[in-house]
Amino acid sequence: MRERLPIILFALVMAAIPFIPGMPPFWIVLLDNIGLSALVAMGLVLLTGVGGLTSFGQAAFCGFGAYTTAVLTTAYGLSPWLTLPLSLLVSGGAAVLLGLVTVRLSGHYLPLGTIAWGLGLFYLFSKLEFLGRNDGISAIPPLSIGSFKMIDPGSIYFAIWAAVLLSALLTMNLLDSRTGRAIRALRRGHIAAEAFGVQTPRAKLLVFIYAAVLAGLSGWLYAHFQRAANPTPFGAQAGIEYLFVAVVGGAGYVWGGVLGAAIVVILKEILQSYLPYIFGGQAQLETIVFGILLVGLLQLAPTGVWPWLTARLRLKPARRRPDTTLALAARPRAAATSAVLLQIDHARKQFGGVIAVNNVSFDVQAREIVALIGPNGAGKSTTFNLITGVLTKSGGTISVLGRKIDNAPPQQVTKLGIARTFQHVKLVPDMTVLENVAIGAHLRGHSGALASMFRLDRADEARLLAEAARQIERVGLGDQIDALAGSLSLGQQRIVEIARALCVDPMLLLLDEPAAGLRHMEKQRLATLLRGLRDGGMSVLLVEHDMGFVMDLADRIVVLDFGTKIAEGTPEAIKTNPDVIKAYLGAVA
Amino acid sequence: MLFLVQDGITNGAIYALLGLALVLVFAVTRVILIPQGEFVTYGALTYASLSSGQMPGTARLAVAMGIVAFGLDLFAARKSLHLKLVGRAFAVNIVLPTAILALTAWLAGRHPPIAVCIALSLLIVASIGLFLYRIAFQPLAHTSVLVLLIASVGCHLALQGFGLVFFGAEGQRGPTIADTAFTLGPLRFTGQSIAVYGITVAFIIGLWLFFGLTLYGKALRATAVNRLGARLVGIRTTLSGQIAFLLASVIGAISGILIVPITTLYYDTGFLIGLKGFIAAIIGGLVSYPLTAVAALVVGTVEAFSSFYASNFKEVIVFTLILPVLVLRSLAAPAVEEEKD
After folding, report:
1. Which uninterrupted H or E stretch holds A349?
2. Which of A109, A284, A290 sits opposite B326 (nearest CB)?
3. Distance (Å, rounded) from C-alpha A68 to C-alpha A85?
4. Three-state secondary structure readout of A425-443
5. Phi first, then psi: what are they for B172, rounded to 5°?
6. Nearest-CA distance from A553 to chain B in Å?
7. Which of A196, A439, A488, A522 could form an SS bridge with A492, CB 3.0 to 4.6 Å?
8. ipTM reported for the complex, 2 dp
9. pLDDT tens per residue across span A469-503
10. Which helix (H) or strand (E) holds B190?
């Protein structure tokens, strides 16, 4: 309850504002506008700041919400309350269609795509006969409860801000959950999230729809607030402005959206009323100032005002330790039909003319530590990527427990009980160690987005976090559990990756240079941990350059050179193998 | 039918020019240049005002931007100020735009010949382009494409707002470059449309050769791929960015000057024209010049046909054209891991 205290306080203050005697009605109108803008910005926070998908087209979704209720209430006489779900449905449905097309776009194609359909939809709104063309639709009925009609800005104020607070709560609940972690991992690229079973296209589509529904809600409120709808507020300019709001406030923070809306709406009002005095009567001067401010802000404070403010106020989010006594159900296992966990048979990978992995064959047995070594560029990491489905192989077969996996996607591979770490650490730096590790247990939880938003996921969530905390304890990082992953040393980040992989409850652990960046004592502790895991029934396949570490730890060693396997055997045999010595030292030493 | 195709090709040639400039700027600086449309407007309306004997406000904007750029230059070099550096910054940022302003003010009332108007408009817009890079994008050069894109949108807003201040809400037209015209079968070719074709083709070939064959063109491309690497081998990355923006603003202004005799331009028309150039540039994957040019012709033709058969939905059709293209692009591109911060 304590973490909810500031929100309850904020809600009380907002509820009290209209009752302040002598409150100018104009300020209430401003607050209404702030609320409407904050709703859209909140969606953008989730979409852009958290999920990393930039959209310039959110205003169009407001348009879907506004026009849906405008048409249904004026032409068909439906009650505004009936059109609310329909408005949300239409904007969500539009998001599904546009999302299926655009969410797959990578990098800068997505924002360009959103500009394009933002413009296209604006022209559509202003040309369609039944939407009233450029004049739009007027005489939309006000919201009403019984005989009480919310006609003046002071009464719809409550509807708008109730919507803002409710959306903020739901959004924060969503972010603080299994689905939320998957969304927050999106911004750092797909590979890490997919390696732990996150369906990244689905997660992207989800935030896209969520942001659109919030925009639709804002549009629905707008229509009943203005009691009219025309194309202008849903055009490209407005779409750009919403992104501006999110960037100003702090695109990574839910309350940043609200703060940004307040700053921008008030600033716009001030600019509109004072600029003409300074520069004469020309309209649209505020867009000049807006544009310049946006560029200046990106140069001086790219993270926005909210994080700057919270750093000043030293607001530390209270973190609760997960209850580690809760047990998480084990990963469902296939009946073991073979003692060979992993069989690689003539695996081959070609990049154009380069053969990175050339007909490599080896296997990993149960309860065994196998090391894959070789000089730089030998194809070790590529082999890992072939096993885990990050790359598709050009030839050969890879089987797990005797069953062929033919270019199975990473999400499928991890279900089979193969978990990995990465040569270049792939953690989400602004998430805590606990949250990062919990991504590893993604497939062992089952709560969806809706359950998370309404906090119906708490039992499931507590078990996931308990498992993550146990694995962090196991790898010896218990003291850093609440630290941000980005604040740890590189060596520690590698260990966090191991804890995350352990959360899969794997039978085979793939470690890509786990000892790089570790100090001597830490290496010894890592070796002890890996031996313990093997003795507990797990197998480990690791790539490593530290020969002392490998020779000491591995049961068996496979040596690659230029994509080809040149030797395989016990550490003793490998140490004296002339081919291996030649590969490492260049000539017969 | 045929006149629609001809109309489409004339429009398409303009889009091709703009698409080329967008590809050029993106390839060198990773900036997706939304304000390209403002270069078009500025070029066109500066030319139109000059030839009707008015003083264009853009000349003053260039001076103001030059002063800001000079301040930024001084601030960036505050630890190692020496006379040569200050002198050069002063010459480029202060003397140059002031000289242009003086020349403009002197010529404005005297009805100079068309060629002088064109040259002066190009000079003004080119200096704005140069300073725009210095002020808005050079400090952000190390950031992600996304941040650059948002900044680019900010520049578009500011420049479009200035456009309204300088040129007012009414549209303008400019005098034609060449008055000759001839008919070939059912089609009538004006000197203006011939100029459009000629200049477009010249630019396409010129840019293609420049980037493909010259060492300098390759240096510009290297900057785009890896700024640090380019610097390590001795390429001055800020200079590359400035050259790219200079070229882009000149191309934008030329396009504007070419179309303002054909259609009435308003302060915000450039944005839409620029976006259509975008569609072409995106079809070209933001890398290929010839593909961009071909795509621009397609966009122009689609626009001409849809404005004839479904004029109400012309813009809707043109902008939705981009979606299938984007989807094809993203399906064709291999799923590369993008590491962002």
Report:
1. strand A340-351
2. A109
3. 10
4. CCCCCCCEHHHHHHHCCHH
5. -135, 160
6. 32
7. A488
8. 0.82
9. 999 999 988 898 999 998 998 889 999 999 999 99
10. strand B187-190
